[in-house]
Amino acid sequence: MSTIEIVTSLAYLAAAVGFVVGLHLMNSPATARQGSRLSSIGMAIAVAATVARLADDGGITATGWAVLGGGTLLGGIVGLRSADTVKMTAIPQLVSIFNAVGGGAAALVAVADFVRIIGTHDPSFPSRIMVPTALDVIIGAITFTGSLLAAGKLQGWVPGQPLVFPGVRVVNAALVAVMLGGGGYLVAGSHSGWVLVGVVLASLGFGVTMVMPIGGADMPVVISLLNALTGTAVAMAGFVIDNTALIIAGALVGASGAILTKLMADAMNRSIANIVVGGFGTGDSAVSVTAVGGEVRQISVADAAIQLAYASKVIIVPGYGLAAAQAQHEVAQLATQLEQRGAEVSFAIHPVAGRMPGHMNVLLAEANVPYTSLKEMDEVNPEFPQADVALVIGANDVTNPAARRAGTAISGMPILDVDKARHVIVIKRSLGHGYAGIDNELYTDPNTEMLLADAKAGLGELIASVKSLDA
Amino acid sequence: MTSNLLADISIFVLSLLVGFEVISKVPSTLHTPLMSAANSIHGIVFVGAMLTAAQAHDTVGYVLAFIAATFAAMNVVGGYRVTGRMLKMFRRAPAPPPRDSTAGAGEGTTSP
């Protein structure tokens, strides 16, 4: 082993330590920034060591340096600009795009390696290389188009509803056959570039048909799953080029994505397979509307303000509707106002609130709500019976008591026990359905009053109304 | 099976286990920054793109290396930047109750 090889190996080890310790520091908001910085230092060390190795080795051509420099500059600028300008409501899209390009890059590393080997005089493909090559190309290409499509759905460029076209199963079966058959053929020792092209195209297509039928409400699961797949693709790329840094980092990301996918699926009481097969809210599950029949009571802004102003414990339940209305700053202002009047205010966050895991927490953090006021479902549920008022804004299915009964579309889904609060005020634009397409029994509960208004406008009026009580 | 491959597989499996162990302790408050951080970590594929560029000696190789380097650089640079931007917004409750609206020193502002 030459000196430079030892140095790069140690540098990769240092990078891996940085990633692991960095992720470990993310277990508390107080140390998370430090963790992110440590992880980026690890990354810088790995990149610097690789530059040194390339320079020392001398195998890279001048064109190679130019190609590398140009690509880095271009990608770096695009990455920086999008990271600096993205709105916090659009974070899921950006994370999906970064995920897509990461998966694409991983697939390209294996493709380039394959193309280089078939260009040599005596191409030989030990299965030690070809198994990870096939896996990397398949998984990387699926995440590339899958994540781009997910980003398009989140951005609204592609309709968010589950899209199913006739014969999709046949198409999927054909794509899987090409992917696996072609992959197997390559592993068996084929030298054909065309087989590889076929596998790449089939995988790109499968990424599209996989995400297409998945509805907007399932996006947190899909994004987590695609994240796990990218990690796996990067680890496979590490096997192809025999690089431990890629293997370790890829495995860490794969594990992280897998955990988040499981958590999200559990929070919706659905299996991952069920979500990927799709069809939630498309009418394939018999919607049994066992409407309890009760009447919906409305409340005026003035009355709602009085209830809130004289409550000693208020729990606010924000959902995606709050973010969609860009009302996170108003809700933070209302919370501060109530706190200054002496009330104890906390936010109850359902795991799937928002469009990716933990999205609502970021939106509220942006609006200066301290993370100490944000409570997880298990932590806050026992507190609802002591709450004078539960204020529900833009959340629907995650508050529906029907989930506790069998026989509804959301049966068994863990929910926030909003109906146990003494009073419930729901700010909602109209009496429409949630994603699950069923009636929310919370709205007809005798303790519930509805404030029919747009989240942002309604909160603005509440703030003004509470303020006038001070005067 | 070479000993090299066996070592790689061992590293892969152990890293998966370390990942499960470390990440299951992350509170749901930080799940978005966590995913974004994990996203930047798989930007390590940039190292792979560099090694690809080093091996390239023809047009196809250069084109593939260029796209891989562009994608990977975007992933790694943007990923860390946006993770940092998000984490900067997380603050704990002010110890004494704030008297005035001087608390809005963070990135977001309290009111329009």
Give a written overview of the molecule.
The complex is a heterodimer of chains A (471) and B (112). Chain A has helices at residues 3-25, 32-57, 62-85, 91-118, 127-155, 168-187, 193-211, 219-240, 244-267, 272-277, 301-309, 320-324, 328-340, 359-366, 377-380, 455-470, and strands at 313-318, 344-349, 374-376, 389-393, 423-428, 448-452. A six-stranded parallel beta sheet of chain A has the order 3-2-1-4-5-6. Chain A is elongated. In chain A, 59% of the residues lie in helices and 7% in strands. The N and C termini of chain A lie far apart (79 Å). Chain B has 112 residues and is an all-alpha fold. Chain B has a domain at 29-90. Chain B is 66% helix and 0% strand. Chain B contains four helices and no strands. In chain B, α2 (31-41) packs antiparallel against α4 (59-89) and α3 (45-55) packs antiparallel against α4. The chains are: A alpha/beta (471), B mainly alpha (112). Chains A and B meet through α1, α2, α3, α4 and α8 of A and α1, α2, α3 and α4 of B.
